[in-house]
Design goal:
By secondary structure, the chain is an alpha/beta fold. It has a domain of about 150 residues: Rossmann fold, CATH 3.40.50. About 40% of the residues lie in helices and about 15% in strands. The strands form 2 sheets. A 7-stranded mixed β-sheet has the order 5-4-3-6-7-9-8, with helices on one face. Helix 6 runs parallel beside helix 8. It starts with a helix and ends with a strand.
Length: about 290
């Protein structure tokens, strides 16, 4: 068979596989609940990693997964490391223990001065932990809620630094399946509670801190409102890295002024390092 014909058939087969993937019932059912950065392949990649040993072993290198997570560059990782050294330098002395986040999923590792080989994403999670400590003090005994948990990396590293009371993670069900598998590979000191927004019991929920690394800002406006009424209004403090709200989103996401109607004491901080011109950090309840 002619080489061109072979290539054409291979491309068509790939197209059919992708079509089958994005037409899965769980994709269709959650289409209106996804963030705008998610092509629809991300939850499927998470689901597959949760249930397939081979996929789980290397999920942090999966192309579809890295469209949403695990794509921090070496250069950006160096800037996160600089922030860690300035904000909480003693973390560098504990860095070997904090590389626990790189033991599962075969992440891409980079080499940095003073810390050796480490995932740039791990450095990002540690930089967020430094911000939390700077803004809110020590988090020991905190009840924390996180909107958009990825694979549980932010919780895993925060748990290494403080004995938390609990950490509730809200996300799509396929993502929660991966979080469960990932975190059960480690010994966790605190209690973690993965749940969807629909299964979240809002009646008695109270949190010392709410955290979101971009996830809240990428949700459709209607879903943002639901998270505010069910989750964020239950939190005394908050830290959310945002990539929407500054510019006009044509109703897709809430603006900063709209968010202020629900959180009058909102404080806007620069994202450091700045990963996009429209990014910023929303904080409330800081000391």
């Amino acid at each position: 068979m002619h080489m061109v014909e072979l290539i054409r058939k291979a491309k068509y087969k790939l197209f059919l596989n992708l079509t089958r993937t994005i037409r899965r019932p769980d994709y269709v059912a959650t289409h209106g609940l996804r963030s705008w950065s998610d092509s629809g392949l991300y939850p499927e990649a998470a689901r597959r990693a949760a249930h397939n040993a081979r996929a789980f072993a290397t999920f942090k290198r999966n192309a579809s997964y890295r469209q949403v997570l695990e794509h921090v560059s070496k250069e950006l990782g160096a800037q996160y490391l600089k922030q860690i050294e300035e904000k909480w330098p003693c973390l560098i002395d504990k860095i070997e223990n904090l590389k626990i986040n790189d033991q599962v999923g075969n992440p891409i590792l980079e080499t940095y001065p003073h810390v050796g080989k480490i995932s740039p994403t791990t450095l990002r999670y540690l930089k967020v932990a430094c911000d939390l400590r700077e803004l809110f003090g020590e988090l020991a005994a905190f009840d924390v809620v996180e909107i958009g948990g990825g694979y549980g990396g932010q919780f895993l590293l925060t748990d290494q630094l403080w004995q938390l009371a609990s950490w509730t993670i809200l996300d799509l069900d396929p993502v929660l399946q991966l979080i469960n598998r990932y975190l059960e590979c480690h010994l966790i000191r605190s209690v973690y509670k993965p749940t969807t927004l629909n299964r979240f019991d809002t009646r008695t929920a109270r949190f010392d801190l709410a955290v979101s690394n971009y996830a809240f800002s990428e949700l459709p406006r209607a879903l943002q409102l639901s998270y505010i009424s069910k989750v964020l209004c239950k939190a005394r403090r908050g830290y959310m890295t945002m990539n929407s709200g500054k510019a006009e989103c044509h109703g897709q996401s809430m603006s900063i002024s709209e968010l202020r109607t629900y959180f009058p004491a909102l404080m806007i901080l620069d994202e450091v390092p700045l990963t996009s011109s429209e990014n910023y950090i929303l904080v409330w309840g800081q000391r």
